């Protein structure tokens, strides 16, 4: 199965099992807008809680807020979004499709890196155990040639984007002979900039209404509340402010399912530090945020850092944490050293003093900021992508069966445990209901009695339920039940009276938090 086929199956699975639906589907949907179904919203809530508690519970100097989506329009002038929040877009004249020009170039570079990896794999098979990969990468002429092309194109792109040289960006696309993925032609328009913010009107009469924006990020809500939080919370530097909330971007090239949407949710933390100490804290949060990701248990090799060569207008250092999705390594979280750009500009445009008086240094200054910004929807897709598996199962008669399973970490799973009576008679449903009613106050549970026990197991494998509890005739005799484990399909007999204790340990979020 190719990665493209896997991704299509994942999208179909998400809809079939109540994770993600196309928005307004009965009206043929709305491009790049999605709704979360009954299982999706539970998974999303659990991921959100995992992030929130990792920030606010584990760090005594980080607190949370919930700022409004609507903000004074001058906020976005001060932040630079009105003047500089643009994407370079290009159209193919034959397919009539529009693309981000920089993404086309980045995808071309990724294909070239793929060629290098193919050369390495061919050499590995040819030389076997004697193969020295590092030496081969350094000395092979073809690899060296491809690497030089990648570096040259990347340098040109970075310089062109920094200088807003749109003609040069188009020239790179032409020089690389990049074709439209739909038409296969190189018939491109010129590159032009497109502002990503949604505008709306505030006011009851259209003539008197003022233009405001749906926020394109949640960070500015933190910055404009920085002084309120610092004073009311008596916060001392270094300290952080965390927020989870919706943001909106008029993405022209929204694609790859929920990876890039027009309405999405961000989990951001702004960490305020002394000027001159920002790089120490930048490195600190780079490492700590990677530990948060790895604690989910999907494999360290699935993650990598990507250092930005082209920095945003507010940053003096920036890196992404990338995850290997079915469509390649892509950004899921950014860590940025934003300097004092935001607070400095808001102080300038508002006329309000946003300086911090440092009693240890006996002076006032505008703090520098380290930002961690992670997409909740992208993390949701990360979890689904990493958890999805199709397996063949050997049966006792020598034949094989198949199952689709989501190996979601137990603390994040939408349903923590399912309770089944083995059959719908002999008092087993009543006993199962009694156990269910006892456990539902502590855990997200589901009760099922329809179909065979095997079909019930398969349904819960498909939504990621880590534990299924079966009540059978032996339960009526000795009050024991069977726990069936999703990942191994092994079964364990335990006293029903111990279920709460056993489940509490296995689904506790603290097990993941302790690894950070």
From TrEMBL:
Q: Which CDD domains match?
A: GlyRS-like_core
Binding positions for ATP?
249-251, 259-264, 331-332, 375-378
Which cellular compartments is it found in?
Cytoplasm
Q: Which InterPro entries match?
A: aa-tRNA-synt_IIb, aa-tRNA-synth_II, aa-tRNA-synth_II/BPL/LPL, Anticodon-bd, Anticodon-bd_dom_sf, Gly-tRNA_synthase/POLG2, Gly_tRNA_ligase_bac, GlyRS-like_core
Specify the Aminoacyl-transfer RNA synthetases class-II family profile domain's residue ranges. 177-421
Gene Ontology BP terms: diadenosine tetraphosphate biosynthetic process; glycyl-tRNA aminoacylation
Domain of life, per UniProt, equals: Bacteria
Membrane-crossing segments per the record:
none
The free-text function statement in the UniProt record for this protein reads: Catalyzes the attachment of glycine to tRNA(Gly).
| Assembly | Homodimer.
The family line of this record is: Belongs to the class-II aminoacyl-tRNA synthetase family.
Protein name as it appears in the record: Glycine--tRNA ligase
- According to its UniProt entry, this protein's organism is Tenuifilum thalassicum
> In the UniProt record, what gene is named as encoding this protein?
glyQS
